[in-house]
Amino acid sequence: MTAEQKITLPPAVPDDLLRELRSDHAGETGAVAIYRGILAVTRDAEVREFARHHLATEQLHLEMMQQMLSPALRSRLLPLWRVSGWLLGALPALVGANAVYRTIDAVESFVDAHYAAQIARLEGRPVDYALRRVLESCREDEIAHRDDARRRLGAPGPIGRLWRGIVWRGSAFGVAIASRV
User: Fold this and answer.
1) Superfamily covering domain 15-178
2) pLDDT of the residue at 154
3) DSSP 125
4) CB-based contacts of 109: which residues, under 8 Å, 6+ apart?
5) CB crowding 112-129: b at 16 or more within 10 Å, else e
């Protein structure tokens, strides 16, 4: 999918789907901020290239979500998602490359599961094919980001597992709030 392809929502989108898309838009807003936070802090050339590459994809996702959701349908907490995303990128970047990759692995693992659940809920529903394709395309990209981060990591130790749990729960909390506000 590309941002140049016009993506519009079908008429009479059910409220539950609008809530899901609101959380997707908020998540993509946060994802863009994560990579900007990494780039603002790290001086590691490999991490900077990793962040630049994935930022471009997340920016595309955000543009597609913005096409689908009018400003009135977006989360009213976008400034919070930008700040929390930026911090989620910047703080691990202060620690080092492994912390950045561990964070991206955790975030993208959550996002993969989130998009997979959304796509599964669309099965059997009269939803426009283009919308389903956007969600599938975004999910594929998030899996690629996760896998890229994982290739750069070893097995997580206890701190890595703890951090993954914190990021996962924080992401789940963000989705729950963004879908409502």
Assistant:
1) Ferritin, core subunit, four-helix bundle (1.20.1260.10)
2) 76
3) S
4) 146, 164, 168
5) bebbeebeeebeeeebee
